[in-house]
Write a structure and sequence with these properties.
It comes from Allokutzneria multivorans. Keywords: Membrane, Transmembrane, Transmembrane helix. This is VanZ-like domain-containing protein. Pfam families: VanZ (PF04892). The chain is an all-alpha fold. Helices cover 75% and strands 0% of the residues. The protein has five helices and no strands. Helix 1 packs antiparallel against helix 2, helix 2 runs antiparallel to helix 3 and helix 2 packs across helix 4. The longest helix is centred in the C-terminal third of the chain and has 22 residues. The N and C termini lie far apart (41 Å).
Amino acid sequence: MSLRVLPFVTAALLSVVILFMPRSGVPSAPFGVDKVVHVGLFGLLAVTGLYARLRLFPLAVGLLLYAVASEILQATLPIDRSFEVVDIITDWVGLAAGTLLHAWATSARGRRQRARYLRRAADEDS
């Protein structure tokens, strides 16, 4: 197994911990933070999956299904969590955002912009 897969496996394990933690273990947070966590988590899964060189279509389908399955399981497992359609939608938004971020980061334009930024930062440090 390639080391490129390790970040994706780590993100997947993190998602299991976050999505299936009993309500009693979930820290209280301001309204909306839950949705930010969903977007960030599925964005991370998308970016690390693409970094691992998983093919986009199977990765996207798998993550779309994982989003739905996780909500169903949250409602059916004895962890005092509920099914929320909005969470599924925010998971899908995170998937899309992560896919677009990876596409930008690996594009020629993205590489040029990062190189220019790093040169500027190095010049400021000097």
